[in-house]
Structure formats: C-alpha cells, structure tokens
Amino acid sequence: MAAGTPTQISPTLGFDAIVDLARAVPFRPRLSRFIFMRHGETEGNRKGIYQAADTPLNSAGEAQAAEAADRLALASIVHVAASPMMRAWRTAAIVTDGRGLTPEPDGGLAERYFLGLAGTTVGKMDWRDDPPACETLAAFVHRAGNCLSRWLSREDDPEGDLMLVAHGGQLLVLAALTGVDLNVELRRNATPILFTRSTGGWEAAPIG
User: Fold this and answer.
1) pLDDT (tens digit, 9 = 90+) per residue, 161-189?
2) Is residue 5 assigned to a domain?
3) Has residue 58 been placed in a domain?
C-alpha cells in the first residue's frame, strides 16, 4: 500500500464517452507487456481540486514515489517516458534514480488540460463535460490515445520493459484502449501496474 493515507478515488462518470472516443484511435500494439504508473499524490489530489501543470508532489507523494521505486526494484525497465507535468516528471525522476535511466518527456502523456478550472473544487467530475477554457474530451482522448498507441507500437525488448509515468486521465484512456477493468487499487497514486497481453486480451495487475 502506498505511504500515508491514500487519496479517495471517485467513481468515473463519463467513462463510456472515453470508450466511445477511443474507438476512433488506431490501436495496433506490438508490445506484449509494459508498465504504467500514475504520479504520486499532490495537494491538489488531497484537497480534490483541479491542478495546474506545475503542481508538485506533496510529502506523501514523494514517499509514495519512493515506495514505488522499491516495488519496482526487481523489475527490468529499459526505457521510461513521462508526462512533463511536474507531478509526473518528479515521480519518474524518483523511480529511475540509481537505475542509469533518463526519462523521456512526452507532452502527449500530459493530463487533460483543465486550465479554466485550475484551483477550483473537482466535486463529482463527469469526463463528458467540456467546461470553458479547458481541453475538450474529444481532443484529450485523441491526443492521449494516439500517444499511448505510438508507445505501445514498439517491439518487445528482450532486455526489459517500457514504463510510462503519467496521470489518472491517461490511465482511463489506456483502459479504454486495452479493455482492462480498472479497480480502485489500480487507480491510486504511484501504483506501478503491469499490463500483459495474451490471446485472450489485455490484463493489468499491480506490481509488488
């Protein structure tokens, strides 16, 4: 379990709309396995407010990222790509420290831009809503879906796995693309998730 008291995970209203939009994304993965991890906790997560791109990890988030690094100690990771938003980038830096890996920034992995709502209370968020001065859901799913599809189109590396460090919204798009069922534990901050593909489809399970 991540360090400290976990941030409460709210039901995902509007996930059906994400699934519908994701159907338009060309998704032809070649990887048979990869690791995905949401960033560690921020004060925005703890308080339930929309966040700016430069929101840092709080002390609990720093500890969660360090704990995730321990959980990944035995994992063979050969490439890490991360959202350049501060909370994800810092998480990636903590996880890769001492591994001889340098995360690659990719703006396509950034969270949906809720610029017009930054600093306001999230409440019962419905992903189908398109608030003023915010990235539309269609634009976000197109951006995130194509970015994830591009990374997953890589060939398996016999030396180890690809790891993506991003956000909760990206995880929802990934779930829509792969058809996995995201339980609450998989959606928590700084939870490393191993995605594996077989003839029966994709499965996702926490690491450690």
Assistant:
1) 999 999 999 999 999 999 999 998 999 99
2) no
3) yes
